[in-house]
Automatic annotation (TrEMBL):
<dbReference type="GO" id="GO:0016832">
    <property type="term" value="F:aldehyde-lyase activity"/>
</dbReference>
<dbReference type="GO" id="GO:0005829">
    <property type="term" value="C:cytosol"/>
</dbReference>
<dbReference type="InterPro" id="IPR001303">
    <property type="entry name" value="Aldolase_II/adducin_N"/>
</dbReference>
<protein>
    <submittedName>
        <fullName>Class II aldolase/adducin family protein</fullName>
    </submittedName>
</protein>
<feature type="domain" description="Class II aldolase/adducin N-terminal">
    <location>
        <begin position="10"/>
        <end position="187"/>
    </location>
</feature>
<dbReference type="InterPro" id="IPR036409">
    <property type="entry name" value="Aldolase_II/adducin_N_sf"/>
</dbReference>
<dbReference type="InterPro" id="IPR050197">
    <property type="entry name" value="Aldolase_class_II_sugar_metab"/>
</dbReference>
<keyword id="KW-0479">Metal-binding</keyword>
<keyword id="KW-0456">Lyase</keyword>
<dbReference type="GO" id="GO:0019323">
    <property type="term" value="P:pentose catabolic process"/>
</dbReference>
<dbReference type="GO" id="GO:0046872">
    <property type="term" value="F:metal ion binding"/>
</dbReference>
<dbReference type="Pfam" id="PF00596">
    <property type="entry name" value="Aldolase_II"/>
</dbReference>
Length: 219
């Protein structure tokens, strides 16, 4: 495969290990993928493999129709979900699906995670909505997630977990971390009183500022 694909495999393998390191998953659940636009393919984690042992050679390369282009392993069972998001969102080049505990608690309660802190507002662009329940790996679940995600960058899967999307897989990973932190803060704030949710207009301004001017310009 081309050099860009090999680099993408290395990147996904490296971030896979961080899923365990940062406590975003337990066991072999959760999955990651990245789009390689030069080749119009997706590199995705294999199904049911120990993230501590996973290597770049274990990655699976799919085209956007879901056909295996490279790899000896079976792709993640959530490949249809990843591919549906890539087809629906031209701005997305990385997807991370986690089972972090507090975000998953909101998914079980089927309650959105509201934008109560500015970093979450900047990264997500609004509340983290809950996609209607469907069985894992199904086309129905994929469609439900795409619908609930809309143009935001994170969505909850009812009774399941969290999906973060980004312009890169690194950004998607960070979004999952920040959403979990926001979920924790929101849950704690609910025990203290009524949380104050950031106004919709301010959320839009924060999101736009992050997308257009946050960080350092590319050289």
């Amino acid at each position: 495969m081309k050099l860009a694909v090999e680099r993408a495999k290395d990147k996904v393998a490296r971030l896979s290990k961080k899923l365990i390191e940062y406590g975003l998953v337990a066991g072999t659940w959760g999955n990651l993928s990245t789009l390689v636009p030069e080749e119009n393919v997706v590199v995705i984690t294999p199904s049911g493999m120990d993230y501590n042992c996973i290597q770049s050679a274990d990655m699976v390369v799919l085209n956007l129709a879901g056909e295996v282009m490279d790899g000896e392993r079976r792709p993640s069972s959530e490949a249809p979900l990843h591919l549906s998001i890539y087809r629906a969102r031209q701005d997305v080049a990385g997807i991370v699906h986690t089972h972090s505990e507090v975000a998953s608690a909101f998914a079980v309660a089927r309650k959105p995670i509201q934008p109560v802190v500015e970093d979450a507002a900047m990264l997500v662009g609004g509340p983290v909505e809950v996609a209607a329940y469907a069985l894992p790996g199904t086309a129905e679940l994929a469609q439900n997630v795409v619908t609930a995600l809309g143009q935001r960058n994170a969505v909850l899967m009812a009774n399941h977990g969290l999906v973060g999307v980004g312009r890169s897989i690194e950004e998607a990973f960070t979004i999952c971390q920040v959403v979990e932190k926001c979920a924790r803060i929101y849950a704690w704030a609910n025990t203290l009183g009524k949380p104050v949710i950031l106004p919709e207009g301010d959320v839009a301004k924060l999101y736009r500022a992050y997308r257009e001017s946050y960080g350092q310009p590319k050289k």
